[in-house]
Amino acid sequence: MSPLPTVIVPIHNAFEAVDACLASLDRTLPAGSKVLLADDASTDPRISPMVRGWCYRSALDARYVLREQNLGFPANCNAAFAETGDADLVLLNSDTIATPGWLQQIARCADRDPRIATVTPWSNNAEICSFPRFCEANPVPEHPDSVAEAAAMTLEPDLAELPTAVGFCMYVRRAALRQLGGFDAATFGLGYGEENDFCLRAAAMGWRNVLCETAYVVHQGNASFGPLDIAPNGDNLARLLARWPDYNERVARFIMADPLRPHRQRLQENLEKLARSGPQRDLFG
Length: 285
Description:
Elements: E1 6-11, H1 15-28, E2 34-39, H2 47-57, E3 61-66, H3 73-82, E4 89-92, E5 96-97, H4 102-111, E6 116-122, H5 144-152, E7 169-172, H6 174-180, H7 185-188, H8 194-204, E8 208-216, E9 218-219, H9 235-243, H10 247-257, H11 261-277
Parallel strand pairs: 1-2, 1-4, 2-3, 6-8
Antiparallel strand pairs: 4-7, 5-9, 6-7
Helix pairs in contact: 1-2, 5-11
């Protein structure tokens, strides 16, 4: 198996969420795993000392970069891509909570096909990759590690095709990044739509965007902006559709067909097996 991807956590304020995310990385990643914390000029004065202290204490190979001025999400990510050498990477929102084995499972999925550009895991709040209810912001389960354990019980994941990755947790292959370039910061400015555009460019060049059904990551964020992952009434949606006029139709067809239904059913069955084999509990609170 290839080395584990470098984890990039873009940061802008959100002190409590960042603190919880970093604690989950300490708990779930092997010692020495590479992590880059890319702070896009947070205005909360508590962020920098907290993150620097975590880097000092952590057993992970963690590095903190503080931007001198706010670049916006796409440009901050592009800078982080350049700061992580030749490694494959996972963009992880700072309002996520990682579960055991998440990064190894994503890496295993990516290793199965060199034409995979992006990988997205299951989450409670991940639009088309949401579980248990599709395209909903489900509540955080009471036992997220049990959901992750159930996901990992699927020995031969199908690598189901997605119309786009979901940006809360997005593996990106370095070879695809080299060919496609990074996010289009000039078009998408402060953010929203850049990840969708990247995935569409990848698909147009013969790359794949897939689900890793053996991984699960909690997304604590606010209710998402729906399956487009675009801020409502924002100019970026118009910019995305100007470039990809059929994008709404692609997503709508995916939602109507719901090809992930059997995968969600399999995960639910795995959860029920776990519940029967261990202490009886409500895994979703």
